[in-house]
Fold this sequence. Notes:
Oligomer: single chain
Number of strands: 0
Radius of gyration: 17 Å
Helix content: over 70%
Largest sheet: none
Distance between the termini: 34 Å
Strand content: under 5%
Amino acid sequence: xxxxxxxxxxxxxxxEDVTTQLINQLDELLHALSxxxxxxxxxxxxxxxxLREADRAIETLRLxxxxxxxxxxMAAAAFTVRSATAAMDAAAAGGxxxxxxxxALRLAHRLGQTLVRDFQVTPNGA
Length: 126
């Protein structure tokens, strides 16, 4: 069966609810990690600092959404979140982090990557 090209729908952008849910999931994951990692060793203190940076980046992203800032600012805030989660993931890669924490950090990094994809700016800036 052939489909008419004019009836095909372009891929839809994620809804605000999906984006909010994704941000909340990432925030909950980071808070759970922060509570589970004691800051007794140098590597864990470094990881705690990365978690604080990611938390600040998430709050910035939330504010850009609440204030309905331009899409470029939202994309930049999402990129900052992804950068913070990537830094955590990289810091833990060579460290003494247990497998469960390592998996949670990988998940946080993937959620950050998803946020960046959700806020990609089109060439015309829309």
